[in-house]
Amino acid sequence: MTVTPMMAQYLDIKAAHSGALLFYRMGDFYEMFFDDAVAAAEALDIALTKRGKHDGKDIPMCGVPVHSAEGYLLTLIRKGFRVAVCEQMESPAEAKKRGSKSVVHRDVVRLVTPGTLTEESLLDARRHNYLAAFAEVRDAAALAWVDISTGAFHVMPLTPVRLGPELARLAPSELIVSEAKETELYETVSDFGVALTGLARSAFDSGSAEKRLCDVFNVGALDAYGTFDRAEVSAMGAIVEYLEITQKGNLPLLRPPQKEAEQRTVQIDAATRRNLELTQSLGGGRSGSLLSVMDKTVTAGGGRLLERRLSSPSRVLDTVQRRLDAVEYCVHEAALTSTIRDDLRKVPDLDRALSRLSLDRGGPRDLAAIRNGLTQASLLHARLDPAALPDLLRDAAHQLSGHDDLIDRLDAALVADPPLLIRDGGFVAPGLDADLDEARQLRDEGRSVIARMQAQFVTDTGISSLKIKHNNVLGYFIETTATHAQKMLSAPYSDMFIHRQTTANQVRFTTVELSELETKILNAGARAIDIEKRLYEELKSSVLSHAAGIGTAAAALAELDLATALAELSVTENWVRPKVDNSRAFDIIGGRHPVVERALKAQSGAAFIANDCDLSANADAAKVWLLTGPNMAGKSTFLRQNAIIALVAQTGCFVPATSAHIGLISQLFSRVGASDDLARGRSTFMVEMVETAAILNQADDRALVILDEIGRGTATYDGLSIAWATLEHLHDVNRARALFATHYHEMTALAGKLPGVDNATVTVKEWNGEVIFLHEVRKGAADRSYGVQVAQLAGLPDSVIARARVVLEALEKGEREGGATQKTLIDDLPLFAVSPSPAARPAKSSALEDALAQIQPDELSPRDALDLLYKLKEAARS
């Protein structure tokens, strides 16, 4: 069957991009056909129609408007699709010049994937959108990652076993791997919701990758940026190759690669990040996470910097101290801090504006963002006194200046509030370009220009009835009566006026000047847009030539924002500067859990009960607190808050405590909470054991470990044995600082056998058969778990609670007396032979209770209420 030229073009382009939905530009719509249309219509919940036939069958079709395509793109990307954007590369008029049946030339200009988004509406302003690549070369491996919306480019060597934890830290949207490794790594990557993309092995060739990188950064060798091994070069080269494929050769503005090292940051595995809810809660959102409580930044760059710092706390003492010094300075200089924050609120997202401009996806507002951001940077530089600033802020202040020429040019060229799109026009300020001003005047004031020309002709000829008119046939023309026409045809006017047409009563003329003016008026709108486009390109080139300085200023603004935001947080939430050093101290007084404290204030206004924790250890000795106490008493909160305080301190922030002395920790491990992994066939207990094994196999003597209820997922004696052995291993082999919560009270005996183990308990109080949680941690051991009382609080039926008390008492009696076997206890407790006793009937109410039940308080006056109170008191006496 004959295929139309347009459909043939579509099929050719689709064949070259078979792995993506093809957005095929048709005028004001992106249209999809065949299977793409069926899949997109379902994913986007839009109408599926048809257009023509292919092989005798209707061709399914759907489409989305070009002006609102971004929203549809975001939906498709989130649902796992990739999209090839195919644009018209010429106008229909240009195509017709090749022949009346010529098809408009089209081509794919961009592949949209999860890791290559740049549009403002498709990204979270406060989060990076990383594209990562993992490479292995012989015995070495490396991970590289880039955020093309900001240009940030990083690489680090790692062992394959560290890939999971690093993916948890970075949370990239997309990971590039060699096609040969795609199946092998699928399970690892799927845990983190990362889109996995396989590239040909040639993309990871380290030799060609090095040349590719040198071309991108226009250098002869990569030595200027550091020493990179073959695996690191391979990973970085794969990213550049992928960007060339998806961006069709129009590479984003990448900053020189920065090499990171594992030993410079606290190592935190995926389970620990999840348990501590650092950047997202267990429910998957930002709300309820530590980040949500700490984030008081006022710029997008500052928000992204906070997330990076919180995800990668430093273990370099000098770095931590510099950050703490900056926060402390801002705390003490409250007035200056407030002023700086007011200035920062006017700072747009410089990094992403610059990236969009480099990719030709920007517009006038991005130029204005650069202007406004650099203007605020210059203002802040003038406001700050470098001599009075701590090192970190002094360095930032120096990086805010040096952009006066660019600011002046952008300020002179742009209006205050430009439109979003270039085609809208009107963004260039009046007075910048004389040709543009003329075109605008003709476009906006064509009638008045014609009126002035008419007045000039009347003056020159003395013919008061002379008029300049317009019709669709002649355009603009000069009209006068036949009587006056003879004068215009005679010298000296015959050389000026050109005869056009004679009617019954009028004669029509034109002049060279009028014809030129007519052409200018008719083309003025398009000419104005063309001039603005040219000026936009010139301004964009000026901005991109200053890209390095703009990126440095953006980083400095983010640093200022973060320091002042953490100072604001510290003052409003009563956080204090921790003492951080290279010792093995861990002494926290009055520590609090910031997320729980915020929730308590919001829900009930109740105060958080602060607690102390001292895990200070000498030399390489272990220090472990064995924590006992009932469920619901706050053990898990206590465990988490101490891990969070240590992490926040090494982020370079004040901490929620009365005081804190923390020796640098190298690793943070948390095994808290219960979950299964049904997809891998892992039970809750199996997941618990896998996570515990990872801790025992990796933790060093500078690690901080928190473990909660190890062994609870199996039989009592199995669980007790595993928990006992785990604690001994932590003490004797890992020699870590640790908090170990358990319900196995038998383990409290270890405090007398292991020198580094201390017992601690969360206190409770019993009152009238009920348990009251005091949430206070003190030295000592709990003698009971209060599980039945907690079950009663949860609302189990009274009959179940009563029966549980009977069974518990019998079991405890058997254990105290010794020798009571399970069979004997079952015989003594007819669990299945006797039905639970019915609930006791309530006693008959008294006369006083009946009288109280009849009272309607809303109907009583104050005097009536007082009288009634005396009567009730008298009745009670009798």
UniProtKB/TrEMBL annotation:
<dbReference type="GO" id="GO:0003684">
    <property type="term" value="F:damaged DNA binding"/>
</dbReference>
<dbReference type="Pfam" id="PF05190">
    <property type="entry name" value="MutS_IV"/>
</dbReference>
<dbReference type="Pfam" id="PF01624">
    <property type="entry name" value="MutS_I"/>
</dbReference>
<dbReference type="InterPro" id="IPR036678">
    <property type="entry name" value="MutS_con_dom_sf"/>
</dbReference>
<dbReference type="InterPro" id="IPR007695">
    <property type="entry name" value="DNA_mismatch_repair_MutS-lik_N"/>
</dbReference>
<dbReference type="InterPro" id="IPR007861">
    <property type="entry name" value="DNA_mismatch_repair_MutS_clamp"/>
</dbReference>
<protein>
    <recommendedName>
        <fullName>DNA mismatch repair protein MutS</fullName>
    </recommendedName>
</protein>
<dbReference type="GO" id="GO:0140664">
    <property type="term" value="F:ATP-dependent DNA damage sensor activity"/>
</dbReference>
<dbReference type="InterPro" id="IPR036187">
    <property type="entry name" value="DNA_mismatch_repair_MutS_sf"/>
</dbReference>
<comment type="similarity">
    <text>Belongs to the DNA mismatch repair MutS family.</text>
</comment>
<dbReference type="InterPro" id="IPR027417">
    <property type="entry name" value="P-loop_NTPase"/>
</dbReference>
<dbReference type="Pfam" id="PF05188">
    <property type="entry name" value="MutS_II"/>
</dbReference>
<keyword id="KW-0234">DNA repair</keyword>
<dbReference type="InterPro" id="IPR045076">
    <property type="entry name" value="MutS"/>
</dbReference>
<dbReference type="Pfam" id="PF00488">
    <property type="entry name" value="MutS_V"/>
</dbReference>
<dbReference type="GO" id="GO:0030983">
    <property type="term" value="F:mismatched DNA binding"/>
</dbReference>
<dbReference type="InterPro" id="IPR005748">
    <property type="entry name" value="DNA_mismatch_repair_MutS"/>
</dbReference>
<dbReference type="InterPro" id="IPR007696">
    <property type="entry name" value="DNA_mismatch_repair_MutS_core"/>
</dbReference>
<keyword id="KW-0547">Nucleotide-binding</keyword>
<keyword id="KW-0238">DNA-binding</keyword>
<dbReference type="InterPro" id="IPR000432">
    <property type="entry name" value="DNA_mismatch_repair_MutS_C"/>
</dbReference>
<dbReference type="InterPro" id="IPR016151">
    <property type="entry name" value="DNA_mismatch_repair_MutS_N"/>
</dbReference>
<comment type="function">
    <text>This protein is involved in the repair of mismatches in DNA. It is possible that it carries out the mismatch recognition step. This protein has a weak ATPase activity.</text>
</comment>
<dbReference type="GO" id="GO:0006298">
    <property type="term" value="P:mismatch repair"/>
</dbReference>
<dbReference type="GO" id="GO:0005829">
    <property type="term" value="C:cytosol"/>
</dbReference>
<feature type="binding site">
    <location>
        <begin position="629"/>
        <end position="636"/>
    </location>
    <ligand>
        <name>ATP</name>
    </ligand>
</feature>
<feature type="domain" description="DNA mismatch repair proteins mutS family">
    <location>
        <begin position="703"/>
        <end position="719"/>
    </location>
</feature>
<dbReference type="InterPro" id="IPR007860">
    <property type="entry name" value="DNA_mmatch_repair_MutS_con_dom"/>
</dbReference>
<dbReference type="InterPro" id="IPR017261">
    <property type="entry name" value="DNA_mismatch_repair_MutS/MSH"/>
</dbReference>
<keyword id="KW-0067">ATP-binding</keyword>
<dbReference type="Pfam" id="PF05192">
    <property type="entry name" value="MutS_III"/>
</dbReference>
<keyword id="KW-0227">DNA damage</keyword>
<dbReference type="GO" id="GO:0005524">
    <property type="term" value="F:ATP binding"/>
</dbReference>
